[in-house]
Amino acid sequence: MEQALNAQDSNKQSAPKLSLVDRLQHWLPKIVMAPTMLVTVVCIYGFIFWTAAISLTNSRFLPSFNFVGFAQYEKLMDNDRWITSITNLGIFGVLFMLIAIVLGVGLAILLDQNIRQEGAIRTIYLYPMALSFIVTGTAWKWILNPGLGIEKLMHDWGFENFKFDWLVNSDMAVYTLVIAAVWQSSGFVMAMFLAGLRGIDSSIIKAAQIDGANLPTIYWKIILPCLRPVFFSAVIITSHIAIKSFDLVTAMTAGGPGYSSDLPALFMYAHSFTRGQVGLGAASAMMMLAGILAILVPYLYSELREKKS
User: Does the pTM of the predicted model rise above 0.90?
Assistant: First the structure.
């Protein structure tokens, strides 16, 4: 025992001491990353827990600590406007995700054929993603306005019976949000799938062609199944965009006519900052977070399980 202790002491004494420069190089990355980690912990995770705590109180204009359990969530589920916003989110989210992914895949396959002016076409498809949703919503509000946009243009061209008043139609207003969101995001989805297509070995396609498979069959049965991780990523990104959509609906319809195109993000903002119901707004924010986690957690679980296997 004494010999082992003596050996450890001798190893410690023989170990070279780190110079000041070596110590600085060791701690410098940690020092540089410390502010970012602090801001992330406080401003993201800290405020998530703060919002969760506020959602359990009866806070009005200012936060209070009079805890009432899940009363705000019960009140939320009895709110007709919240039910309408959730229904609209289901319509908007499903249609937006489906159309954006299908259109993105189609555009990616088109560009994968080595067509002429591919760079210019790719830039045109990706350009809407460079715009903010405020700009997109404002532009499409003008385009779909019956007195300014498509309907007036067709009337000026002599098509007096043409009617396209979705923007002011309470039954169709939510579908105008789908049009604008797909226009902006489908190019980004296309870029994701195009990158995935370019990463597939061309020898697989050549081997399938030698076996007599035509190009649609190759893409449907061989290439697209290989892009399953890209599909997962596209679903995660588009669902996240749909759930947190606020600026698009604010600029385009402001939730109207009435509440016919209202979404949860707009509901949360209105009740938290304009109606003085902070507790109810916090409860709606936590429900939105639960929706994102319901999509994100299964995805992360499947990815981690594949890496372990």
Answer: no
Token representation of residue 178: 């789908």
Q: What is the pLDDT of residues 235-292, one digit of tens each?
A: 888 988 888 888 899 999 888 888 888 999 999 988 888 888 888 989 999 998 888 8
In Å, the largest CA–CA distance within the chain is: 104
Residues 236 and 296: their CA atoms lie apart, in Å, by: 7
d(C-alpha 130, C-alpha 297), whole Å: 29
Tokens of 185: 């995001």
The token duo for 148 is 């300014």
Distances (CA, A) of 200 to 106, 193, 220, 308: 17, 11, 14, 23
20-45: burial string, b at 16+ Cβ within 10 Å, e else: eeeeeeeeeeeeeeeeeeeeeeeeee
Count, in order, helices (H) and strands (E) of the chain: 16, 0
Residue with tokens 């989210």: 93
Tokens 């396959």 found at = 109
Q: What is the DSSP track for 82-104?
A: HHHHHHHHHHHHHHHHHHHHHHH
